[in-house]
Amino acid sequence: MMRLNAFALALKSLRHKPLSSALNLLLMAVGIAMMTFVLSASRQLEDHALRDAQGIDLVVGAKGSPLQLILSSLYHIDIPTGNIPLAAQAQLARNRLVKKVIPLALGDSYRGFRIVGTSTDYIAHYGGTLAEGKLFDAPMQAVFGAHAAKAAGIGLNAHFSGSHGLAASGDAHAERPFVAVGILKPTGTVLDRLVLTPVESVWHVHEAGHDNGAKDEAEHKDHGDDDEHAKREITALLVQYASPLAAAMLPRAINSQSELQAAQPAFESAKLIRMLGVGVDVLRGIAAIMLIAAALSMFAALYNALEERKTDLAILRTLGAGPAKLVLLLLSEGLLLALAGAALGWLVGHAAVEAVGRLLSQEQNLALSGLAVYADEAWLLLVAVAVGVLAALLPALRAYRTDIAATLAR
């Protein structure tokens, strides 16, 4: 009963000064919203990065930036570093230190979703299963990831043409259309955002772009299948080690070759997260400053209110309210402001994550969800309680020590 009265009095007191209460609540909400956004977005990005890299020990591609190779071949958010000879796949597959090699041939996209020439091993690696249709078993057949199919509005047996590059506005390869033969169930991995097809499809599309139809087809026949195969190129190879010894030997052996580069996803992903971590730390620092400002503002508001309400508090004491009740009243005001601000900030933070996620989804980059809630966010509640208690502690102690006689005698 006593707690209920203190809560009701604290609520009325806050309503008595709506502008001051609203400003303090807003400051608290902004700080918590920033903390929530940073925490949720960084955790989701980190989880996505780890999930997409899971089971891939090494990425082999053309010479260039190792980070660019990882971003283009593993996360599909950058342009490739170049092409490598197809023979590199067979060479790696014969290596006893290698368990599995998955080829990737990149270059085109459909409505911003990357078309990836690969084998069905790539789909199996990410646990892809069919929602409808079948997996590709011939060139120019395509299987859509769940998000790509939904966003592109593609259906089974629909014909479509890829466009050059990752931009939806790239030059279209209308002369070699694909046919959609399957749509995958959502996997929560990079697979959801891709259009998958045999490697041969990528070769056919680009041969059509660079050659001149029947004349070049005839030339290809004259050269023979072996010569043509020897000229084939792919973009990258995803490698699984057969032995821990491979981690020490294979990257060095590959990097010693003039045309190939080996990039380790674990190392490059950690580097990328460290790079992003600088920005995350800045945002956390700004959020911490906002919370400190909220605590100071709340303290000033409660302290000033105490000075103005000394007579009221003294009258409460004469009506039977003990010193502990006055302490509870002031602490309740601080906690009400802090918790209401934290609740508002938490909702705003998740709404911001959802908004950014939808924006990124439109650009086919990374998916963020405002509905993803992590256990780590529980400490935001503790932060709010700490801010509320600290801001109200000194005014509460002063209320506890209120001299009834001296106050009423003034």
Characterize the quaternary organization of these chains: single chain
Number of helical elements? 15
Q: Could you say which overall geometry the principal axes of the C-alpha atoms support?
A: elongated
Distance between the termini: 32 Å
Mean pLDDT: 82
- Give Rg in angstroms: 31 Å
Q: Which stretches of 5+ consecutive residues score pLDDT under 50?
A: 211-224
Q: Determine the structural class based on helices, strands and strand pairing.
A: alpha+beta
Binned strand content: 5-15%
Q: Share of helix among residues? A: 55-70%
- Please tally the β strands and state the result: 13
The major beta sheet can be summarized as: 11 strands, mixed
SSE order, as H and E? HHEHEHEEHEEHEEEEHHHEEHEHHHHH
How would you describe this protein?
Helices cover 59% and strands 15% of the residues. It has 15 helices and 13 strands. The chain has helices spanning 2-16, 18-53, 66-73, 87-93, 120-125, 146-152, 199-210, 214-223, 225-231, 245-255, 265-308, 310-318, 323-362, 378-400, 404-409; strands at 58-62, 84-85, 98-110, 113-118, 130-133, 141-144, 159-160, 163-164, 178-184, 195-198, 233-234, 236-241, 260-263. Strands 1, 3, 4, 5, 6, 7, 8, 9, 10, 12 and 13 form an eleven-stranded mixed β-sheet that branches. It is elongated, with a radius of gyration of 31 Å. The model is unreliable at 211-224 (pLDDT under 50).
